[in-house]
Amino acid sequence: MSDHDSPIQLNVGGGTLAKQIVSSQDDHWSLPDGAILASGVRRLASFTVDVVIVTTILMVITGGRVIDAWNLTLWSSADFDHSLAQVFVILAAHWLYWRLTGVTYSRSLGQRMLGLAVVAEDGSGMTSQMWDARALRKLLYLVPVLNLYLGAYELARISQRHTHQTNVDLKVGSIVVHADSLPPANRRHIK
Length: 191
Known about the structure:
By secondary structure, the protein is mainly α. The protein has helices at residues 17-24, 40-61, 72-75, 80-105, 109-113, 128-138, 146-160, 167-172, 184-187, and strands at residues 116-120, 174-178. It has one domain. Helix 2 crosses helix 4 and helix 4 runs antiparallel to helix 6 (128-138).
């Protein structure tokens, strides 16, 4: 029998059989035990809440001038630099918001409201550099018209991938999960 493969295979990995099958596909990592991945609808809702929070704060701080970023007549006038300045304010504020809430809470306020958390693929906390990259890549979702295409594309990617990752998640090495579904050891850094 030394020239034949054994019909018995030992289960040497940890976790359930389903997790082992998923992790063996494409040499991908395994999810933390018990982790429930966030759906596209919940992620879209948390993103919407985040944009509303930041935009409302900017409206109050700028006295409503931030709306000039979307004023097409101002863009086509000689004073287009006012609109351009507001675009930079919007992008900088969102980047800062996503980075600071990520480093502080391991999630944005919208994700916190919906019970989600962003962790590294192995369930550990994300590094500061990972939050920088994630926040920077999410700025593309704020560009009008492009955001419609990217949003639809990323929602499709979430539903197609067994890890529910967007392209941003793949580049950064993160997953979005229900915070309460993580094992206690992986929840320590989540506030």
